[in-house]
Amino acid sequence: PQVVKAYSWARCMGAEGIDEGSSLSVLANNYMEKRILKIRGITKSHPHMTQRRMEMTRYSLEKLREDTGVGCVDVQARMTDFGIDAPWLSHEPLLIPEPLTPEAGELWSKEDIDYWCDALEQVVDEAYTNPELVKTAPHNQAIHKINAEALDDPEQWAMTWRAYQRKHKARKKGKKAATTARQAAS
């Protein structure tokens, strides 16, 4: 299906459309980069790469994390409060510490990029002045911060529903046997 979608997109765009789209993408990404690199606490992941880039660039919020304790996941959650889709962090594995990977592409207008960068700048300023506000985000969403502690607890999760059911049946049997042993010892 992906090949069909890519082929259909290429046919719809045509050679001129692809050329124009790539030019707009390069322009948008480079404009966004200039704005992002002016925000304190954000660095370019590969500063030695100075040529113009068509694809997205990865940035690092490692300095922000060191200064404030606010990380990329916190910034991502807070940006949704501004009506912005959460920015990409990176593709796994995370090769860049505290990654941020915005992608302006050919569809974003200058106003969209400015709004996005202004929101990011405000979130970073909040991280420096009131880190708890950013760490407890999102605040304007139906579902607030999810407690991710259970995700690291192998007693709480399973890879499939059947494995989860087996695990909890075994746990119930273990508790029942422990209760019976305590009652017999009493």
Brief digest:
By secondary structure, this protein is mostly helical.
Number of strands: 3
Q: Measured on Cα atoms, how large is the radius of gyration?
A: 23 Å
The number of helical elements comes to 6
Judged by helices, strands and strand pairing, the structural class is mainly alpha
Note down, in words, how this protein is organized:
With 186 residues, the protein is mainly α. Helix content is 54%, strand content 3%. The chain has six helices and three strands. It has a three-stranded antiparallel β-sheet, with no helix packed on it. Helix 1 (2-36) crosses helix 4. It is extended. The termini are far apart. The model has no long low-confidence stretch (mean pLDDT 85).
